[in-house]
Amino acid sequence: MKICVAGGAGFIGSNFIHYMINKYRDIQIVCIDALTYAGNLENLEIVRENTNFKFYRGNILDNIFLDKVFSKEDFDVVINFAAESHVDRSIKNGKIFLETNVIGTKNLMDMSLKYNLKRYHQISTDEVYGDLEINDAKSFSEEDILKPSSPYSVSKASADMLVMSYFRTFNLPVTISRCSNNYGPYQYPEKFIPVIITKAIKNEKIPVYGKGENIRDWIHVYDHSISIDKIIREGRIGEIYNVSSRNEIKNLDLAKKILDILDKDYSLITFVEDRLGHDIKYSVNNEKIRNELSFECSVEFSKGLENTVNWYLDNLNWVEAVLKDKYIEV
After folding, report:
1. Which end of the chain has the smaller Cβ count within 10 Å, N or C?
2. pLDDT for the residue 325
3. Per-domain residue ranges for the chain?
């Protein structure tokens, strides 16, 4: 099997590549990535010399680039991790989110149609469902209507609907996964968990929106990789699968857990003005992927969080290089 991993130099994409290269000897991975601020070839350093791995630098908005790669590589599967994903950035400037997350998705699907690929898989997010109240016991299922709240989640919901339209209109063999918040190694240090870790290490103030009451469900990126592998191999064409671990926790409590691991004082936490339109609670039902594909999370949250903190402690040079845009050039 030859897999095109779009956006594979980012956090989740690079972890997926590590997982697949380590698990399978007969698989070929081709990564395409524009190496924007969140894409970093250092994330792929440990696989770059592997004979089953290849990298092309280019943007999914560039159809000439895509056509050259697709015509050369004869892919079986495309997995689209390529996305602008930071909510705060989408609030400040949503244009690039619509371009990359919607038009970029269309371009990849057009190439998948042109070259008759066996599977197109879209990496989505639980944020497309919108949010719940703090005490709401409901969890979103794959059949729930989409009610995205931010320019980011709107762009991802739009992409999901576009993917399903290609399934119905063009019979493109598609699947979609909607995953809860990821954590683990190589996550860009603008996201919540790495921000807490990197600032706590330096004894800097840790910003927490509002009162820290917002609830998120956290899944280790390794388990997310397992779920994607299962979906592209065993998932039913035209289906959507929620992926979650049911590790739901308030942002303030999560910050305290990380400070406890680092033996830092809670006084580092500082509450800041809340994000515009801040979603209150995310919760998605994962029964479908558990029942159909026998998916279960393997990383216990407390242990995974501790391992993640230790990874950042061991890779402070990576953090500093990323923050200074010191990427490895091809």
Report:
1. C
2. 63
3. 2-188+219-246+280-299
How many other C-beta atoms are found inside a 10 Å radius of the C-beta of residue 199? 18
Selected catalytic residue, list 127, 131, 229, 279 = 127
Domain boundaries 2-188+219-246+280-299, corresponding CATH code: 3.40.50.720
pLDDT digits (tens, 9 = 90+) for 220-246: 999 999 999 999 999 999 999 999 998
pLDDT digits (tens, 9 = 90+) for 196-215: 999 999 999 999 999 999 99
Q: Is 84 one of the annotated active-site residues of the chain?
A: no
Q: Which one from 33, 42, 84, 126 is the annotated catalytic residue? A: 126
Question: Would residue 127 show up in a list of annotated catalytic residues for this protein?
Answer: yes
For residues 25-30, give the mean pLDDT. 96
Q: What is the Rg, in whole angstroms, of the alpha carbon atoms belonging to the chain?
A: 19
> How is the chain split among helix, strand and coil, in percent rounded to 5?
45, 20, 35
Q: Is 70 helix (H, G, I), strand (E, B) or coil?
A: helix
What's the CA gap between 254 and 244, in Å, rounded? 17
Q: Is 217 a catalytic residue?
A: no
What integer best gives the mean pLDDT of the chain? 93
User: pTM here?
Assistant: 0.94
Sheet with 239-243, strands from edge to edge, namely 53-57, 28-33, 2-6, 77-80, 119-125, 174-179, 239-243
